[in-house]
Amino acid sequence: MSDHALDQQQRAAVVAEAMTWRGTPYHHHARIKGAGVDCAQLLCAVFEACALVPPIDPGFYPTDWHLHRSEQMFSAWLQRFATQVQRPPEPGDVVLWQFGRTFSHGSICAGGGLFIHSYIGRGVILSRDTEEPLDGRCPQRWSFWP
Question: For the purposes of burial, counting CB atoms within 10 Å of the CB of 43, is it exposed (0-12), middle (13-18) or buried (19 or more)?
Answer without folding.
Answer: buried
